Amino acid sequence: MSPSPVLPEVDPLIRKLAEEIAGHLTDRSALVGIHTGGAWVAQKLYALLGPEIPLGTLDIAFYRDDFSRMGLHPQVRPSQIDFPVEGAHIILVDDVLYTGRTVRAAMNELFDFGRPAAIELAVLIDRGGRELPIAAQYVGAVIPLPPHQHIQLNRDPQGRLSLSLLDKRH
Amino acid sequence: MAPNPQLDDNGKLCHLLTIEGLNAALIHSILDTAESFVGVNEREVKKVPLLRGKAIFNLFFEPSTRTRTTFEIAAKRLSADVVNLNIGASSQSKGETLLDTVDNLAAMGADMFIVRHSESGAAHFIARHVAPHIRVINAGDGRHAHPTQGLLDVFTIRRYKKDFSRLAIAIVGDIMHSRVARSEIHALTALGVPDLRVVGPRTLLPQGVEELGVRVYHDMEQGLKDVDVVMMLRLQNERMRGPLLPSAGEYFKHYGLTPAKLKRAKPDAIVMHPGPLNRGVEIDSAVADGPQAVILPQVTYGIAVRMAVMTLLAGSST
């Protein structure tokens, strides 16, 4: 059995992401976090990158490709995109990039708000295991994991973020 | 006790036939889902792909424009294929039975039936008959139930008043013939409304209505005193047999909602009506078009609530 990876602190990863993103911002850039973990990371990035960048959130529950098998997620939250998507440079933010299906669903939803000029992807962790041809432009850390392990972003009542490892076999 | 035909073996909603027997948690989960669909309906592209590939049949054995249209819009916004059937004008007039009609439509690949019928229990009858993967929504059966109307009414109240546990609500008018009133009463009692009143003449209140958890008023001014919500009902003239009322004018005098009578309610009370309105019979135009009326928002929210119900039912298909 392979040893469990040592999980990094979250805040340095978010600072690294912010530094990389800062060099690519335009006057039409906007941050969009995917519920739930992606929205937390996007909020932290927003605090570091400055208030002139619009911030939105997406709940992709209505766009999931496994709806007919799994049904609706019990806690759907309304997506909040209060800025024009048409022609915007969207930086989509998620916590963990795995199969790529969540990102695909998020892009489908974004296009229902308008036609962005470009979409880039920023993720805290890339854990591998892609099932679709999707790649992130900004990556906090690469942590390859076997299918039975899952990495989860947690937020405490003070808003501090941390990572934990879950094993589906247990 | 017979098993609840709305629930599957895991206690999940598989048909929506009545609000009776649904608990507060389940009702709130429908309302929460509807809240997200309100956002979809405010976007430029008012469509999501959830029910892509599903075939939904609007089976209306009784005429309706508003309800049928909102179900149709809701289904289309979920990307379903929708077929509208006005059965009174087709199959039944040729002698086909209800179940023959349903069987034929199931053979065409139906995934969901939205049923309106003048006979109480018609939607239950169909739900018991169809294959397990087919979902049935009652869009109004006789005097029995109109669950999506009840749900959109409580959704509207929740949007304006937030907390059900402090509300006084009056349902006014023809309770006797109203499936809407029954569904509203079941929903509001399940949600814990502490002061629920029905107001109307003795001839339009069913005997024993108190057993549903409501207080009865025959005097409208007393019935409206300090309420947060006034829910007016349409006079169901088409369901009345025999002279239950002296005249429309007399009814309006005692039970029509006028600005003067509305003053008995709280100053921020909202006025609701399931439509269509009989202006000058159960409601004065000054109230129907006034600042306290939320009658048109009810219609708008009806789409989101019906999207939520269809989604939750379709998502529990096996």
Describe the structure.
Chain A has helices at 10-22, 37-49, 67-70, 101-113; strands at residues 29-34, 55-58, 89-97, 118-126, 138-142, 149-155, 161-167. Chain A is α/β, with parallel strands linked by helices and 170 residues long. Chain A has one domain (10-167): Rossmann fold (3-Layer(aba) Sandwich), CATH 3.40.50. In chain A, helix 1 packs across helix 2 (37-49). By secondary structure, chain B is of the alpha/beta class. Chain B has a five-stranded parallel sheet with strand order 7-6-5-8-9. In chain B, strands 2-1-3-4 form a four-stranded parallel sheet, sandwiched between helices. The model of chain B has no long low-confidence stretch (mean pLDDT 91).
Summarize this structure briefly:
The complex is a heterodimer of chains A (170) and B (318). Chain A has one domain: 3-Layer(aba) Sandwich (Rossmann fold). Helix content of chain A is 25%, strand content 28%.
Secondary-structure topology with pairs:
The complex is a heterodimer of chains A (170) and B (318).
Chain A: H1 10-22, E1 29-34, H2 37-49, E2 55-58, H3 67-70, E3 89-97, H4 101-113, E4 118-126, E5 138-142, E6 149-155, E7 161-167
Helix pairs in contact in A: 1-2
Chain B: H1 24-41, E1 55-60, H2 66-77, E2 81-86, H3 98-107, E3 112-117, H4 122-129, E4 135-141, H5 147-161, E5 168-172, H6 179-190, E6 195-199, E7 215-217, H7 220-223, E8 229-232, H8 248-255, H9 259-262, E9 270-272, H10 285-288, H11 295-314
Parallel strand pairs in B: 1-2, 1-3, 3-4, 5-6, 5-8, 6-7, 8-9
